[in-house]
Automatic annotation (TrEMBL):
KW DNA repair (keyword) present: no
Gene source species: Cytobacillus horneckiae
Gene Ontology biological-process annotations: tRNA queuosine(34) biosynthetic process
Stated name of the protein: 7-cyano-7-deazaguanine synthase
CDD domains for this protein: QueC-like (cd01995)
One function term, GO molecular function aspect: zinc ion binding
Entry annotated with the keyword Flavoprotein: no
């Protein structure tokens, strides 16, 4: 384990919770940061809070309400329907610049806390058209953050090249499979654990889980 400090961008969902366990396994000191941007469901913030508390992780919740003011979308406005991007358009859950802002604020926090490592669960494999989830964007931002603050941050993206089944596998290897399955919130309708089963996030999570359970059963 590295005797260094890490900041995990943490939403209380499957991916970032798996990243939190990944970081706890690798770094001596881990801090979680959650962004409150008036998500459709306050349940998301509550879920993140509960997980951080249970794991004994220092947790910062930053108010990013301005994001909703700038870019109303399906994640923040309940009257906007959640749908996948079709015909090359971005999904209705896309918030332009969201990761750019989140990662930048995570960088500011990391600088203040004296943390060198920043961890995010962004993933290019299940790329649903979010440009700021791409590996090249994260690498570019890493350079920019270091230049902007004269820091030597290392941004880690443990899930970047994993599909959903492989993310479940990682949770299993980290010993947090049941925890992640029972306590995280991925669902756009605010239902914890296996979720509503109907929204795009639930479908993706469920498919990955089923694929992984098949692999596990075959071992
Ligand atoms: Zn759902």
């Amino acid at each position: 384990m590295k005797k260094e400090k890490a900041v995990v961008v943490f939403s209380g969902g499957q991916d970032s919770t798996t990243c939190l366990f990944w970081a706890l396994d690798k770094f001596e000191e881990v801090v979680a940061v959650t962004f409150d941007y008036n998500q459709r469901h306050a349940a998301e913030i509550e879920c993140a809070k509960a997980i951080a508390e249970e794991l004994g992780v220092e947790h910062h919740i930053l108010d990013m309400g301005l994001l909703n003011q700038l870019a109303p979308n399906a994640l923040t406005r309940s009257e906007i329907v959640v749908k996948d991007g079709t015909g090359g358009s971005l999904p209705s859950t896309f918030v332009p610049g969201r990761n750019l802002l989140f990662m930048s604020f995570a960088g500011v926090l990391a600088s203040q806390l004296g943390a060198k490592h920043i961890i995010t669960g962004v993933c290019e494999t299940d790329f649903s058209g979010y440009p700021d989830c791409r590996d090249i964007f994260v690498k570019s931002l890493n350079v920019t953050l270091n230049l902007s603050m004269d820091e030597q941050f290392v941004i880690h993206t443990p899930l970047m090249w994993l599909n959903k089944a492989e993310t479940w596998e990682m949770a299993d290897k980290l010993g947090c499979f049941s925890f992640v399955r029972k306590k995280t919130l991925t669902c756009y309708n605010g239902v914890v654990s296996d979720g509503c089963g109907e929204c795009p996030a639930c479908k993706l999570r469920k498919q990955g889980l089923e694929d992984y359970l098949k692999v596990r059963a075959a071992i």
